């Protein structure tokens, strides 16, 4: 599971970086870029990307936990049905033996 989450996080990070490159190509050339793009703005962007990746990981983990809980519930219900069926078979076997 850890590998899956790592792959999802990496894919999300790469996707967000790919979108940033597309935005850069549609903007004005570097010579005409406004002075508002500073290292602090870049750090802010990276922080936002990290937050997004963190949220994606959290959502993926929540979804995985829900799926596992649903599977466990289904398995528990199936086990109960098997147990009840086994009890019925035992009772039927006792009646036949008497």
Provide structural commentary.
The chain is mainly α and 98 residues long. Helix content is 86%, strand content 0%. It is built from two helices and no strands. It has helices at 2-26, 39-97. Helix 1 runs antiparallel to helix 2 (39-97). The longest helix is centred in the last third of the chain and has 59 residues, at 39-97. The radius of gyration is 28 Å and the shape is rod-shaped.
Low-confidence stretches: none
- How much is the radius of gyration in Å? 28 Å
Q: How would you describe the shape? A: rod-shaped
Percentage of β-strand residues: under 5%
Overall number of strands: 0
Describe the sheet with the most strands: none
Helix content: over 70%
Count of DSSP-assigned helices = 2
Average pLDDT value?
Answer: 78
Spell out the helices and strands N to C. HH
- N-C termini distance: 53 Å
Structural class: mainly alpha
């Amino acid at each position: 599971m850890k590998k899956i989450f790592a792959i999802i996080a990496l894919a999300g990070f790469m996707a967000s970086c790919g979108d940033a490159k597309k935005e850069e190509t549609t903007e004005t050339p570097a010579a005409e870029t406004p002075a508002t793009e500073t290292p602090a703005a870049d750090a802010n962007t990276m922080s936002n990307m990290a937050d997004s990746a963190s949220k994606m990981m959290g959502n993926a983990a929540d979804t995985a936990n829900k799926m596992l809980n649903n599977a466990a519930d289904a398995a528990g219900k199936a086990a109960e049905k098997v147990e009840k069926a086994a009890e019925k078979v035992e009772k039927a076997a006792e009646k036949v033996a008497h």
